[in-house]
Amino acid sequence: MSSTAPEQARSTEVALPGDVAPVQEKAKATGAIAWLMDEVIPIPGTNVKIGLDPLLGAFSALGLPVGDAVTNGVSLVALVEAVRRGLPFKSMMQIAGNILMNAGFGSVPVIGNIFSVFFRSNSRNRDVINEHLRKAIETGEPASWWRVVPVLVFLVVFVLGALTLNMLLWAFLAALLLKNLGWELPQLNLNLHLGN
Question: Helix-strand-coil percent breakdown of the chain, rounded to 5?
Fold first, then answer.
């Protein structure tokens, strides 16, 4: 019998002493996102679970990078959550690295969707945050917004670049397919008249 979302969320909770328990309650958003994006659908006959991440990424096959934009945008929630929880900068960079890996490999048609099934960046990010909460006392320097803003800017630029690459790769594959089918591609004739 498959577990429901509340049961799954309970299974990812961490037993924490006294005053740290409310912090865990507030960090449930990252666990819910990890479950939805990486683990919501068990594949029958296997131990593999998939989420919406690879499924939404498949929308790119239609030439719409909407799926990748949504999945990468949702992944950024973990970074914001980590800042709010006071994770050290090292942990923040680990979360950012997971997002970058998913966005980078995810931009490659078909291979990126398969990569997302097994890499599960949102689950990895949930685990990084839960590990910090489990320890309750971190020895590293807590991250601050002034250190995280450049990381966020870099991630946004990288994700936009990955989305552009994704669209270009799909356009190239579509053009290659049409050419092999013997169809002529329309030529764009841009006559720009600048000045007199």
Answer: 70, 5, 30
